[in-house]
Write a structure and sequence with these properties.
The structure holds three protein chains of three kinds.
Chain A: E1 6-14, E2 23-32, H1 38-51, E3 74-75, E4 78-79, E5 101-105, E6 114-116, E7 119-120, H2 123-130, H3 152-162, H4 169-173, H5 180-192, H6 200-213, H7 224-228, H8 236-251
Parallel strand pairs in A: 1-5
Antiparallel strand pairs in A: 1-2, 3-4, 3-5, 6-7
Helix pairs in contact in A: 2-6, 3-5, 5-6, 5-8, 6-8
Chain B: H1 11-36, H2 46-57, H3 59-88, H4 110-135, H5 148-155, H6 159-187, H7 195-222
Chain C: H1 16-23, H2 29-32, E1 36-40, H3 44-56, E2 59-63, E3 81-82, H4 94-104, H5 111-130, E4 156-157, H6 163-180, E5 184-187, E6 190-198, E7 201-209, E8 215-219, E9 222-225, H7 246-253, E10 258-259, E11 264-270, E12 293-297, E13 314-315, H8 317-321, H9 331-343, E14 355-358, H10 360-373, H11 381-407, E15 416-425, E16 428-429, E17 442-444, H12 462-482, H13 496-515, H14 521-536, H15 542-562, H16 574-598, H17 622-625, E18 627-634, E19 638-645
Parallel strand pairs in C: 1-2, 1-9, 2-5, 9-17
Antiparallel strand pairs in C: 3-4, 6-7, 7-8, 10-16, 10-18, 11-15, 12-13, 12-14, 14-15, 18-19
Classes of the chains: A alpha+beta, B mainly alpha, C alpha+beta.
Bound molecules: flavin-adenine dinucleotide, protoporphyrin IX containing FE (HEM), iron/sulfur cluster and FE2/S2 (inorganic) cluster (FES).
Protoporphyrin IX containing FE (HEM) binds near residues 76, 82, 83 and 175 of chain B.
Keywords (chain B): Membrane, Transmembrane, Transmembrane helix
Protein name (chain B): Fumarate reductase
Organism (chain B): Pedobacter psychrotolerans
C-alpha cells in the first residue's frame, strides 16, 4: 500500500498494561516512503498487524502537527527522535536511512507510569498546574486589556516560556527524570508578566511542592531537557524558578 | 523550621545546598591552590612552609577548616541523597539511551567524578593533613618551620601516587567544568548579559585549578623544582 | 415558515443581550452547590465554560478523550482571535464586526447571536490578558493586531502562530485552578458515548473510560457538549486524529436537531497531500496571506521552477479577480479560486494540485523598512532580503519551520505550495439563543454547534466564538434553565434511563468487536473521506450528491458486516474508539449529502455547480433558502427537515462582493 522503498527493522516496546512486564518486539517493515511522518510509518505497521490478526501498537497522538504535546516516543535513545526542535509527529522518515534499525520505547519515569505499549500517564503534569499554574482571576473580573502595558521583551519572553506543549520529553530524556523544565516554564511565564506578580511567590512554592510529591527526580543541570525540548524552552526558566524559590522561601513572608 | 517549610528539603532546596557547598569548595580550592603554588617559587619550600604554617596556626583558618569539613560532608551527603532519589525517579531504564546527543558526559557523571574525588580526598588527607595535624611532621626547614615541603617531596617520589594524583585532577577538572556553571544556574544567577562570563570563568577556573594541582606532583617527581 | 423557536429575546438588536442578562433568573449560591453540570469537551468552549461555571459555584464534571484537557484541538489554532476593540483606530466597532461576520457567513446566520458575539468579543481579550495569556505586543507595551480575511480593519489579536495554544492554555489554567480546588472533577481519557434523557430532559451521559474500557454513568442537571468539529468525516482534514462527531451524533439520535451539516469550510492555505500514506493535513495559517501573494503560472502545465518564472508570466489571480480584498478574500472564495485554477490546468508541483504562496515581495518590502530604520539608504537587494527574512521569521517562524519539516523544502527560499483542505465545520447541533439544543437541558457550544458563522466562517472568529460561548454566554443562559431545576435532587444512576443508555452503548461496542471482518477501520474511513471530498467537498452537484448518498449507504452496510476491530472492549483499544467514531461519521456523511442536496443554492462554503453567476461566484437564493436547515433523526437512519427562518432586520442582504 505504501509508495516508498525504505526497509526498516523496528524494535518496539510492547506492554499489555501497567501490571504486566513488557519487552521489545522486532518488526520488519518494507516500502516506507521518506515523505511519511514517523507516526504514519506506525500507521503502516499497525495496518499490517491488524491484517495479520495481531494487536496494533498503542501510542499517544492527536494533532499530528506538533502542538498538542500528545505524541511521545523515545526513538533510538532520544525523545522525539534524532531531529532537534520537532515532535515525534513532525519527524519524517527522511531523517532515517534504508536498512536502519529503530528502537522505540515509551517515556520512562516513575511519575509517568506506562499505560500500554508506548502510552504513558502524564497526569502528574496536570496536577502540578492545578497546584498553582494559573492567575486567580474569575471570569468577568478583568480590566481593559490595554490598561496594563507590558514591555515587548517581557511579553515575548513570557510567550517563549508559554510555548511549552507539556509533552514530557524533558522528563523522558533527563537522566534524573526531573520535570524542572516543564514546571519552570509555567512559573516563568507568569513570573514575567505583571498579572502574575500577586501570586508569584505562592505559586513557585506550591508548584515545586507538587512536582516533588509526584516523584520526579532532581535537576542536575545537565541541560539535556533544553537540548531535547521540541519547543526550545530555555534553561533560563529553571534559573528563574530557582531564584524565585529562594526569594519565596527566604525573603517573602508568604508560606504555604 | 516554621516559616521556611521545605526550603532545604525540597528538590530545589537540596540543589541550593549542593550549590552553596560547591561554591564554598570552589573558593577553598582557590586558597588551597594559591598557597600550594608557592612551591613553584623553587626556594626549597621555604615560602610554602610559611604559608602552610600560617594555614595550620591561624585561628580563622582553623575555624574555617571545620566549616570546610562540614561543607564537604554536607556536599557528599546531599550528593548521595540526590543520586539515590534520582535513580528512584526512573526505576525502569531505557534499552537505548543516547545521552551524548544532548548533554556532556561529565555532567551526567558528577556522582562518579565526585566519588573519585572522595577517594582522592581520603588519600590526600592521609598523605598531608593527617601528617601535619596529628602524626606530626618529622623535619623542620631552614627557617625552623615544620617542613611540609619535605613531606610532599617524599610522597611525590612514588610514580604510582603521582599518576593517581594527576588522573584525579582530571576528574576534578571535569567535576568543576560542570559544577562551576551549574552552581550558578542552581542559585539562579543567570543573566543573559553575564552568562558568557560565567561560562568562560567556569572553563578557565576548572582548567587552571586542575593544572596547577596536577603540576605539583609532576614538578616534584620530575625534579622540575627541587 | 419557521417551525422551531430560537427564543431570541424581543427588542432592539443592540439591547437584546444586555436586557437578557439583566432579566435572566438567577440561581442562589447555596442552590448552585447542589446543581451538577456535565461538560463534555475541554477545548476553548468546554474548558472556559467548566471553569466559569465552577467559579460561579456549580458542581462541574468535565470530560475529554485526550490524556489532558490541555490537548483539545483548539490548541492547534494558529492565526488569531478577533475582537472589536478598535485599538488600531481604524474604524472598527461592534457593529462592524457584527456586519463582517454576517456578510462573511453569506447571510446564513442569526443576527441576534452574531451581534451578541461581537459585543462580548472585547471582554474575551480582557479576560485572557488577565489570565496571563501572552498576546503579541508592540514596543509601547500595548497589544498588537493583524488583519484576517474578509475584513478591512485590523482586529485580530494573536500570539505568534500559536494563538489557539495560548488561549487554550489560559482556559486550561483556569480549569486546573478549579480542579485543584475540587470544584471541577476532571475525567480525562473518557469518551462520551450516550446522552441520558429522563422525562425528555438531558440528565447525564454514558462515558467509556478509555484506559480500562469500563462504561460509566454520570448524572448532571444539565449537559453541555463542547466537543468540537466534525471535519474528520473527510478523513483528511486539519483536525486532530481524534476529532469526532460521536458526542454530537449521539445527542442527535436522542432528539437534538443537527443544523446545516453541509456547511463545510475548506481552508485555502494548507500543505498539499503528498501521498496515500497521508493521515492528516496541516494548515498554514490564514495570517500568512497578510504577507504572502498567491499566484500560478500564466502558462498551462508550466513545469519551470517558481524562481524561473518571470514576474510578467505569473497570474496573481486573487489580486486580479478581487482587487478590493486581493489575497485577503474570505476562505471559501480563495479556496474555490485555487481549485478553479488547478482544475483549469494551471496547478503547480508534482501533483498539479497546488498554487504558490510567495513571500518574496513583502520580504523585500520589510527589508527596505528595516534597512532605513538602521540607517541604510539604498540597500541592495540582498541586504533587503536578509533583513526582511528576519521580520518574516519573527512573524511566522513556527509556520515556516513546520512547512520545511513536512515538505523538506525551505520556504524562505522557494514559495510555499498550498492547496485547500477541510478545516472547519460551520454546521453542528442546532441551538437556540440560549445555546440549548432541541433537547431541554442539553446545551452545545463552540464548533460543535451551528450558531454564529452561517455558511462560511471568517478567520479568527472560531476562537472568539468558543470563548464567547464558554466564558460569557452559556454561564448566563444556562442559569435560566437551572433556576427551574433547583428542586431536582441528583438522580441516582441506577435509574432505568441510565441502564438503558448504557445497554445501547455497550451493544454498539460489542457489535463492533464481534463483526471480526477483514477490513480495518481506517480502510472504511478513507473510503468515506474519498466519497465526501469528491462529491460533497469544494463543489457539489445534484448527480454527484445522489451518487454519494447511495455510495455511503452501501459503505455503511459493508462497514457493519466487514469491519475488523482487534482486541477487546475491556482495555485501552484505540481501534475500537476509531470504529465507533467512523460508524457515526458514515451516518453523518449521508446527512451532509442530503442537506447539500436539499440546499438548491450556493452560499459560503456550500457551492452547488448548478447555482453560480456567470463569473463563477456563488449564487444564493434568499427567496427559498434563507433558513437554517435543522434535521431531526428518525428511526433507521432517516432524517426530517425543520426550518428556522432567518430574518435580517438590521443588515441589508446583498450579494457578497469582495471586488
Ligand atoms: C489547524 C487549525 C487552525 C485554526 N486556526 C484558527 C484561528 O486562527 N482562529 C480561529 O478563530 N479559529 C481557528 N481554528 C478553529 C478553532 O480552533 C476551532 O474551531 C475551535 O478551537 C474549536 O474549539 P472547541 O472547544 O469547540 O473544540 P475542540 O477544541 O476541538 O475541543 C473538543 C473537546 O471535546 C472533547 N471531545 C470530543 N469528542 C468527545 C467525546 N465523544 N467524548 C468526550 N470528549 C470529547 C475533546 O477531548 C476536546 O476536549 C483553527 C482550527 C484548526 C483545526
Ligand atoms: C573539592 C571538591 C569538590 C568541589 C569543589 C565540588 C564542587 C561542586 C560544585 C560546584 C557542584 C555543582 C553544584 C550545583 O550544581 O549546584 C558540585 C556538584 C556535585 N558534586 Fe561536588 N565538589 C567537590 C567534591 C565532591 C565530592 C567528594 C563528591 C561526592 C561524593 C561530589 C559530588 C557531587 C555531585 C554528585 C554533584 C552533582 C549534583 C548537582 O549537580 O546538582 N562532589 N560539586
Ligand atoms: S519543556 Fe519542552 S520537553 Fe518539557 S514538556 Fe514542555 S515542551 Fe515538552
Ligand atoms: S500529535 Fe500533537 S504534538 Fe505530536
Amino acid at each position: 500500500m505504501s509508495t516508498g522503498n525504505m526497509n526498516l527493522t523496528l524494535k518496539v516496546w510492547r506492554q499489555k498494561n501497567n501490571n504486566t512486564k513488557g519487552a521489545l518486539v522486532d518488526y520488519k517493515l518494507a516500502g516506507i516512503s521518506p515523505d511519511m511522518s514517523f507516526l504514519e510509518m506506525f500507521d503502516v505497521l499497525n495496518e499490517d498487524l491488524i491484517t495479520k490478526g495481531e494487536e496494533p501498537v498503542v501510542f499517544d497522538h492527536d494533532c499530528r502537527e506538533g502542538i498538542c504535546g500528545m505524541c511521545s516516543m523515545f526513538i533510538n535513545g532520544r525523545p522525539h527522535g534524532p531531529k532537534d526542535l520537532v515532535t515525534t509527529c513532525q519527524l519524517h522518515m527522511r531523517s532515517f536511512k534504508d536498512g536502519d534499525t529503530i528502537v522505540v520505547e515509551p517515556w520512562r519515569a516513575a511519575a509517568f507510569p506506562v499505560v500500554k505499549d508506548l502510552t504513558v500517564d502524564r497526569s502528574a503534569f496536570d496536577r502540578v498546574i492545578a497546584a498553582g499554574g494559573f492567575i486567580s482571576v474569575n471570569t468577568g473580573n478583568a480590566q481593559d486589556a490595554n490598561s496594563l502595558p507590558i514591555p515587548k521583551m517581557q511579553a515575548d519572553a513570557a510567550f517563549e516560556a508559554a510555548a511549552c506543549i507539556g509533552c514530557g520529553a524533558c522528563v523522558a530524556t533527563c537522566k534524573n527524570a526531573s520535570a524542572m523544565l516543564f514546571v519552570s516554564a509555567k512559573i516563568s511565564q507568569l513570573a514575567l508578566l505583571p498579572q502574575g506578580q500577586p501570586e508569584r511567590y505562592r505559586r513557585v512554592q506550591s508548584m515545586v511542592a507538587q512536582m516533588d510529591a509526584e516523584g520526579f527526580g532532581n535537576c542536575t543541570n545537565t541541560g539535556a531537557c533544553e537540548a531535547e525540548c521540541p519547543k526550545g524552552i530555555s534553561l533560563e526558566n529553571i534559573a528563574r524558578m530557582n531564584r524565585d524559590f529562594a526569594s519565596a522561601k527566604f525573603v517573602s513572608e508568604e508560606t504555604i | 523550621m516554621s516559616g521556611f517549610g521545605n526550603a532545604l528539603s525540597s528538590s530545589i532546596g537540596r540543589k541550593y545546598v549542593m550549590g552553596v557547598t560547591g561554591i564554598f569548595l570552589i573558593l577553598f580550592l582557590i586558597v588551597h591552590a594559591g598557597i600550594n603554588s608557592l612551591i613553584f617559587l623553587d626556594d626549597n619550600g621555604l615560602t610554602f612552609n610559611v604559608g602552610a604554617h600560617f594555614m595550620a596556626t591561624n585561628w580563622i583558618i582553623r575555624a574555617g577548616e571545620y566549616v570546610l569539613f562540614l561543607g564537604l560532608l554536607v556536599h557528599i551527603y546531599q550528593a548521595i541523597n540526590l543520586t539515590i532519589q534520582n535513580k528512584k525517579a526512573r526505576p525502569q531504564t531505557y534499552a537505548v539511551y543516547n545521552g551524548s546527543a544532548n548533554s556532556k558526559w561529565y555532567s551526567r557523571s558528577m556522582g562518579l567524578l565526585g566519588t573519585l574525588l572522595l577517594i582522592f580526598l581520603v588519600i590526600h588527607l592521609k598523605d598531608f593533613w593527617v601528617v601535619s595535624r596529628f602524626t606530626g611532621i618529622p623535619t623542620v626547614d631552614a627557617n625552623g618551620h615544620e617542613d611540609l615541603y619535605a613531606v610532599m617531596r617524599e610522597k611525590f617520589h612514588d610514580p604510582v601516587r603521582v599518576a593517581a594524583y594527576v588522573l584525579l585532577m582530571i576528574s576534578l577538572c571535569y567535576h568543576l567544568l560542570h559544577g562551576f556553571a551549574s552552581a550558578f544556574q542552581t542559585m539562579g544567577w543567570n543573566h543573559s548579559k553575564y552568562n558568557g562570563i560565567i561560562k568562560g570563568a567556569s572553563v578557565w577556573y576548572s582548567i587552571i585549578i586542575s593544572i596547577l594541582f596536577a603540576l605539583m606532583p609532576i614538578a616534584v617527581y620530575t625534579g622540575l623544582i627541587n | 415558515m419557521s417551525d422551531i423557536n430560537s427564543n431570541i429575546p424581543e427588542g432592539e438588536l443592540t439591547n437584546k443581550w444586555t436586557k437578557f442578562k439583566s432579566s435572566v433568573p438567577l440561581v442562589n449560591p447555596s442552590n448552585k452547590r447542589t446543581i451538577e453540570v456535565i461538560i463534555v469537551g475541554s477545548g476553548l468552549a468546554g474548558a472556559s465554560a467548566a471553569a466559569t461555571l465552577a467559579e460561579m459555584g456549580y458542581k462541574v464534571k468535565c470530560f475529554c478523550f485526550q490524556d489532558s484537557p490541555r490537548r483539545a484541538h483548539s490548541i492547534a489554532a494558529q492565526g488569531g482571535i478577533n475582537a472589536a476593540k478598535n485599538y488600531q483606530n481604524d474604524g472598527d466597532s461592534v457593529y462592524r464586526l457584527f456586519y463582517d461576520t454576517i456578510k462573511g457567513g453569506d447571510y446564513r446566520s442569526r443576527e441576534a447571536n452574531v451581534h451578541r458575539l461581537a459585543e462580548v468579543s472585547t471582554n474575551i481579550i480582557d479576560q485572557c490578558v488577565a489570565q496571563g495569556v501572552p498576546l503579541a505586543r508592540e514596543y509601547g507595551g500595548l497589544l498588537d493586531n493583524r488583519s484576517f480575511g474578509g475584513t478591512q480593519v485590523q482586529r485580530t489579536f494573536y500570539a505568534a502562530g500559536q494563538t489557539g495554544q495560548q488561549l487554550l492554555l489560559g482556559a486550561y489554567s483556569a480549569l486546573e485552578r478549579q480542579i485543584g480546588m475540587g470544584k471541577v472533577e476532571m475525567y480525562t481519557r473518557h469518551e462520551m458515548l450516550e446522552v441520558v434523557k429522563i422525562d425528555g430532559k438531558a440528565r447525564g451521559i454514558i462515558a467509556r473510560n478509555l484506559i480500562t474500557g469500563e462504561i460509566e454513568r454520570h448524572f448532571g442537571h444539565a449537559v453541555v457538549l463542547g466537543t468540537g468539529g466534525y471535519g474528520n468525516v473527510f478523513y483528511l482534514s486539519t483536525n486532530a486524529m481524534g476529532s469526532n462527531v460521536t458526542a454530537a451524533w449521539k445527542a442527535h439520535k436522542q432528539g437534538a436537531y443537527f443544523a446545516n451539516p453541509c456547511y463545510t469550510q475548506i481552508h485555502p492555505t494548507c500543505i498539499p497531500v503528498s501521498g496515500d500514506h497521508q493521515s492528516k493535513l496541516t494548515l498554514m495559517s490564514e495570517s500568512l496571506r497578510n504577507d504572502g501573494r498567491i499566484w500560478v503560472p500564466k502558462k498551462k502545465d508550466d513545469n519551470r521552477k517558481a524562481s524561473e518564472i518571470p514576474e510578467d508570466e505569473r497570474d496573481y489571480y486573487l489580486e486580479r479577480r478581487y482587487p478590493a480584498f486581493g489575497n485577503l478574500v474570505p476562505r471559501d472564495v480563495a479556496s474555490r479560486a485555487a481549485k478553479e485554477r488547478c482544475d483549469a490546468g494551471y496547478g503547480v508541483g508534482a501533483s498539479k494540485l497546488a498554487v504558490y504562496l510567495d513571500f518574496k515581495a513583502n520580504t523585500e518590502r520589510y527589508g527596505k523598512i528595516e534597512a532605513s530604520k538602521s540607517g541604510i539608504h539604498n540597500p541592495d537587494k540582498e541586504t533587503c532580503m536578509r533583513l526582511g527574512t528576519e521580520v518574516i521569521k519573527a512573524k511566522y517562524g513556527n509556520l515556516f519551520d513546520m512547512y520545511a519539516q513536512i515538505t523538506g523544502e525551505n520556504p524562505y527560499e522557494t514559495p510555499m505550495r498550498i492547496y485547500p483542505a477541510v478545516h472547519y465545520t460551520m454546521g453542528g447541533l442546532w441551538v437556540d439563543y440560549n445555546l440549548m439544543t432541541s433537547v431541554p437541558g442539553l446545551y452545545c457550544t463552540g464548533e460543535a454547534n451551528f450558531s454564529d458563522h452561517g455558511a462560511n466562517r471568517l478567520g479568527a472568529s472560531a476562537l472568539m466564538q468558543g470563548l464567547a460561548d464558554g466564558y460569557f454566554v452559556l454561564p448566563y443562559t444556562i442559569g435560566a434553565y437551572l433556576s427551574k431545576e433547583i428542586s431536582v435532587k441528583a438522580i441516582p444512576t441506577d435509574h432505568p434511563a441510565f441502564v438503558e443508555a448504557e445497554e445501547r452503548a455497550k451493544g454498539i461496542l460489542n457489535t463492533l468487536i464481534n463483526i471480526k471482518g477483514t477490513k480495518s477501520v481506517d480502510h472504511f474511513h478513507k473510503r468515506l473521506g474519498h466519497i465526501m471530498w469528491e462529491k460533497c467537498g469544494m463543489s457539489r452537484s445534484e448527480t454527484g450528491l445522489k451518487q454519494a448518498i447511495e455510495d455511503i449507504r452501501a459503505l455503511r452496510a459493508e462497514f457493519w458486516s466487514n469491519v475488523k476491530v482487534p482486541g477487546i472492549a475491556e482495555e485501552l483499544n484505540p481501534e475500537l474508539e476509531k470504529a465507533g467514531r467512523v460508524a457515526d461519521f458514515i451516518e453523518l456523511g449521508e446527512l451532509m449529502c442530503i442537506d447539500a442536496l436539499n440546499r438548491n443554492e450556493s452560499c459560503g462554503g456550500h457551492f452547488r455547480e448548478e447555482y453560480q453567476t456567470e463569473e463563477g461566484e456563488a449564487l444564493r437564493d434568499d427567496e427559498d433558502f434563507a433558513y437554517v436547515a435543522a434535521w431531526e433523526f428518525k428511526e433507521g437512519v432517516n432524517f426530517e427537515l425543520h426550518k428556522e427562518e432567518l430574518k435580517f432586520e438590521n443588515i441589508k442582504v446583498a450579494q457578497r462582493s469582495y471586488k
